[in-house]
Specification:
Layout (H helix, E strand, L loop, with lengths): L4 E8 L12 H14 L6 E7 L2 E8 L6 H20 L24 E7 L6 E8 L7 H9 L6 H4 L7 E7 L4 E6 L4 H8 L5 E8 L12 E3 L4 H5 L9 E6 L6 H5 L7 E4 L5 E7 L14 E11 L2 E7 L7 H15 L17 H9 L8
Parallel strand pairs: 12-13
Antiparallel strand pairs: 1-3, 1-4, 2-3, 5-10, 5-13, 6-7, 6-8, 8-9, 9-10, 11-12, 13-14
């Protein structure tokens, strides 16, 4: 197709069954019904899935990123799902949709959004990731390893299309600013920032001159919404989504999945107050229960042909990740043994309910020299 395709991945927690660990099947049915009505008119194709209690809409269209009508469609889906969630008396019905006043950008309502626009390649391969019980910066580590670490991605030294490196768009979520840095020349500077994943996140990654991919086409994007800032209080974790394009001038599928063989520590878990391992799982195992964890991540692989989705392949539904899952459980048991002490409890607890408790307790303090 000559015009650019846009892939929009939009997620929200609109209600969960038995606490906050899994999306009720009725909500998936409602979402599919609404999107089916829009197919071949507003959107080319769609796929509905979930990770934990987060409903994920995967949409293809030619309207571009941040399009009013596409975001309005997603808002309609989440509103209808919230209505059903309330009828079923589900836990947290509509919790991520902070306001019912839609102004054209659903991220302002509390939904997570990751969108890419690109000229469709032959073939066009991409992976959609979704994480539950963690924060917006949870994808910093794998994005760096995929696009900057030659120990993870041999294509960075063995493929002429990758050897020039990539351009990282990094956001400062506290000051609401951004910067661009290049690999390999800014390798250490990038790490200085994104290692602090609660503040700095990798928002997008672009090819550099010499790539067969146009320089203005992002090849990876992650959601950046911080739910507590939108709501003005703690209502749940950010639970980010991410899209990574693969193959033919980009990292291969194996290079994209390899970082997730390490169950690295992420912030979130129960009450958003703890650190713990991120466990790669199939969709059918994406229902964190133990201490609201371990935090889960799913990966769905697609081909795109003329804007239509071919797939998905459930990429973590593979025994090759069994050892990772076993290690994640061991790490979970170890770090849980610390209970309310660091390193299990996060030190930066501003986006949790704990500050209100601390404020009350501080009122009882008296000067040391009294």
């Amino acid at each position: 197709m000559e015009n650019k395709i846009t892939l929009s991945v939009i997620k929200a927690d609109v209600g969960s069954m038995a606490g906050n660990h899994i999306t009720h099947p009725a909500l998936l049915d409602v979402a599919e019904s609404v999107l089916e009505e829009a197919k071949d008119e507003l959107i080319f194709d769609f796929h509905v899935t979930h990770v934990g209690d987060d409903l994920i809409l995967i949409l293809t269209h030619n309207k571009g990123e941040s399009n009013y009508n596409i975001h309005e469609l997603a808002f309609k889906v989440f509103q209808k799902c919230t209505k059903v969630a309330k009828e079923l008396n589900l836990y947290g019905a509509g919790v991520d949709i902070i306001t019912n006043n839609f102004d054209g950008d659903i991220s302002k309502n509390g939904a997570g959004v990751a969108e890419l626009s690109f000229l469709e390649r032959t073939p066009e391969t991409l992976v959609v990731f979704g994480a539950d019980k963690t924060e917006a910066g949870a994808f910093n580590l794998p994005l760096f390893k995929i696009f900057a670490d030659p120990f993870n991605t041999p294509g960075l030294y063995a493929d002429l299309n990758l050897i020039n490196g990539f351009k990282f768009e990094i956001w400062d979520l506290e000051n609401h600013k951004r910067t661009f840095m290049n690999t390999p020349e800014d390798y250490y500077k990038i790490l200085a920032l994104i290692g602090h994943s609660s503040r700095f996140i990798v928002k997008r990654i672009f090819p550099k001159p010499g790539s067969i991919i146009p320089e203005d086409e992002a090849v990876a994007v992650s959601s950046s919404e911080r739910l507590n800032e939108i709501a003005g209080k703690y209502v749940g974790k950010d639970d980010p989504v991410m899209v990574v394009r693969a193959q033919k001038g980009l990292p291969s599928l194996g290079e994209i999945l390899e970082p997730f063989t390490l169950p690295y520590l992420v912030k979130g878990w129960l009450r958003g107050l703890h650190w713990g391992p991120l466990m790669p799982v199939s969709v059918k195992e994406a229902h964190p229960t133990r201490f609201d964890g371990p935090a889960r991540v799913i990966a769905l692989g697609f081909q795109i042909k003329n804007g239509k989705l071919v797939g998905p392949a459930d990429l973590f539904d593979d025994p090759a990740f069994d050892e990772t899952r076993r290690l994640a459980n061991k790490i979970a048991s170890y770090i849980r043994s610390h209970g309310p002490f660091t390193p299990h409890r996060v030190e930066d607890y501003r986006d949790t309910t704990l500050p209100k408790v601390i404020e009350k307790l501080i009122e009882k303090f008296e000067p040391l020299n009294k």
